[in-house]
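We were asked to recover a plausible sequence for a given structure. The inputs and outputs are reproduced exactly as logged, with field labels preserved.

PROBLEM: sequence recovery
POSITIONS: 184
GIVEN STRUCTURE:
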């Protein structure tokens, strides 16, 4: 963009000047999502980039690196952070504790600093709970339908059995009556 080009030109012409652009200062994420804390810095010399997370649980240093040299990632974030040359970081598998303020500090070798802030809101996925309830309801409905069919079959079988038993009793009673009549 024109703004980025102008900032880069300004930084190249004046030593000790650092610029930082934060294109998305607010990020909304859901639990277990990967998020990109996107920034872009420019300066004439070698810069040191540092990211910190501030929340109600305290302040945690996430990562610090010098462009092209080393990367020092905090043990808490060791397997969850990816760094990029433009100063951005990616957080993998965010949780509720990842909500809060993310501060980036870019320090040029001449001692000039610039700061940026990104606010991250993390929400729990509520529809999973509703999904569980819906599946449970469907399961219970299926079980009750099967039980109703089973009761209907049992009832039909009982009626058939009673009909056969009544028919046999009627036939045997008729035979007895005929036998009694013959004996007389």
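RECOVERED SEQUENCE:
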């Amino acid at each position: 963009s024109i703004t980025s080009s102008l900032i880069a030109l300004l930084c190249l012409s004046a030593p000790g000047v650092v610029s930082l652009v934060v294109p998305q200062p607010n990020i909304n994420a859901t639990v277990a999502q990967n998020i990109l804390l996107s920034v872009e810095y420019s300066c004439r010399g070698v810069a040191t980039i540092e990211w910190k997370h501030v929340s109600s649980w305290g302040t945690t240093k996430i990562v610090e690196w010098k462009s092209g040299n080393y990367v020092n990632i905090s043990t808490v974030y060791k397997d969850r952070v990816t760094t990029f040359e433009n100063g951005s970081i990616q957080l993998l598998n965010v949780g509720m504790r990842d909500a809060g303020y993310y501060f980036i500090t870019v320090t040029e070798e001449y001692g000039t600093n610039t700061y940026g802030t990104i606010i991250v809101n993390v929400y729990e996925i509520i529809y999973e709970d509703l999904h569980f309830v819906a599946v449970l309801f469907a399961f219970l409905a299926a079980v009750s339908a099967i039980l109703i069919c089973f009761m209907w079959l049992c009832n039909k079988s009982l009626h058939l059995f009673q009909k056969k038993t009544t028919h046999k009793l009627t036939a045997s009673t008729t035979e007895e009556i005929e036998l009694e009549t013959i004996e007389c």
